[in-house]
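pinned: reference chain
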Amino acid sequence: MFQRKDNRPLASVSQIGTAALFISVLFSQAPITDQFTSVSQLGLTVTNFGILGNGWNKQDNKILPSCQYKQHTEILREQVEHFSYAGLWIGGKVDGEKRVSTAIVDGVFESGQEGFELFETSEIEIRSSIASTADDSMARYYSPFAVSHQDFLTDFRDYGVNTSDDNGIINHNPLGIDIHLESYAWNYTFADAFVILNYTITNASTATIEDLYAGLWMDASVANMNYTNKYEPGGGFTWYDNLDGFDKTSDDAGYKRDIGYQYDKDGDDGWAQSYIGVSMLGSTTPRPYIGTHYNQWVWTNSNNSDYPNFSMPITDEERYEKMSSSVELGPGPPNYTDEGYPAVANSWLYLLSSGPFGSSPANADSSSWSLAPGESCNVAFALVCGLWEGNGCGENSDEDCSVRRKNLHINHDWAQKAYDGEDINRNNILDEGEDLNDDGIIDRYVLPAPPPVPNMAIVVEDREVTVYWQNNAEDFVDPISREQDFEGYKIWGARKTMDSNEEFSLLGEFDKDDSTSASIGYNTGFEAVRIMDAEGNQDSVEVSGRYYHYKFVNTGVQNGWLNYYAVTAYDRGDPDSNLESLESSVYSNRKYVYPGVSAAVDSWTNNPSVYPNPFKGQAQWDGYGSRAQMLWFQGLPQKAEIRIFTLSGDLVDIINHSDDYSGSDIQNINDQRSPQFAGGEHAWDLITRHDQAVASGLYLFTVKNLVDGSSSFGETREGKFLVIK
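pinned: its structure tokens
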């Protein structure tokens, strides 16, 4: 079990599971804590009981992203986590009594306790708008009803058997509400830094609820787990070096963003230069009647003598007051920022809330709203991240400012555009000229779209990788311009140096050969990569049961080194909508490979060998520690047994090889993302069959061909290698 702040134990997955142990019996549903948005750069854990994040606890011996951005990058400095847990708060008034139902509050992680008050009533359904790409994990969830590339749909509520049943939780007086959550995530490069949380709240009770407020409680802590001991608070990782703020800047349309955010004060030497933000995007209640409120406090501090206005609420009355009003700001520097928020780093939590919501106004000036029994209302939040723009503002490198929040603003504004959809002026009315598809309703969650990700395959050989892809992107119709605006392809490979700030290297770019005014690029045409038959006609080749129309050959790559490749498609943009050329995500079809010698099929002509030979200390691809090393056996048959001996004949290890080798037996490889191998190579971690690291010396090895029916079946060949430590 990990430790939370002030040496408090941090909840394990099993503890979270007990949060609704008895309620699971009632509703026959299990608490789900292992679903996270995987298509985008923002890896956010979504549960079916109102909590976001997973507390960085292990699940199936893995630590899944809690709120990590960027989750798909190979640049360690950009793999930043942003919170342990966040959770939904819903407040309202029933017969004048203020009630607040919370998914989680400070210091509470178990069932039966005040604050852990939302209970699962369904599993998590996954839907995807991805019909057919190399990302089969999403294609298998394809649904015509999907909103984004990865939708999570789930339900929970704040009561037990009936709407007045508090499930035995002290001080919990349920509102009697059912909550339906739909989360949306996209893999577009311009829309992969946010997740939209779309909540529908239904009054399941027999009493009218007035002035509903919804908010997200955030136990934020911006930190990079690669910076110190991985996922071990106390090993250099600290909760206490963060600052919060409320961004009231306006977007290009003149609307206030109202983003509650947190950042690491000094950025941890460049390892945690990222923001986590939350904003309310909109609701079924018209925007002019809704306020957005911001509050913050130090973890479990209900009486903050340094900042008395910034104290933790304890009762429902106090929580409702926090949700329905913003904190009274301080006087200014040095103890407060220029905006009036605390300027001393600490373990700050924050709450971003909005309201009042309802289905109809409760009074003449619409300052109060009500939700009658059986009625529903809707509210959507964006959880958004953004890397710092530059190192700081002015002379102070750790000073927060609007300029440094540029990327947070850009990413937030795309989330807002996605929510607005056809409702350009955000008035909840379909005005003239807004109905793009003439269906008579406001369509939300509409984004400009690049062409689909090309379906891609890889063939790995000796010092050579061939990239194949299909032409599935070429007939795509842009949802905004309504035109087929496909323009070309880009082939991407691994970054050239490990310390490069650019994660990908552009290996090739090919675009339409045309001279129209809308054309962009170099008009290269596709002849250099198009697959042709002997008569010069466009053709295709079969790879693993699929047919592909283009290929790109990358030669001179190093065997035994991890590489990766991706193919993107891009369009020509839409000048009328002020949109630049859009490109599909470079992460969507990235494939990892280890180039090497192919496996012998029938005639075993290659003599097996080892590289690097001699193995000196650590090869450049090795990690740290004796279990993070590897050398390679090459020239193997499709199926073989490798035996390793000392010079005196003692058996060191036995390795069973097949051409579908996955690298799962090697620590360095097992951490990668399902890499593809040539089939005739096998890695060894220099650990004996008795689980000890080998010593320096000369070693012998044998390879026995176990391919049934081959001409050399049962044949054994020998070799040797030297280890120098």
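why pinned: Confidence is low (pLDDT under 50) at residues 1-28. The longest strand covers residues 80-94.
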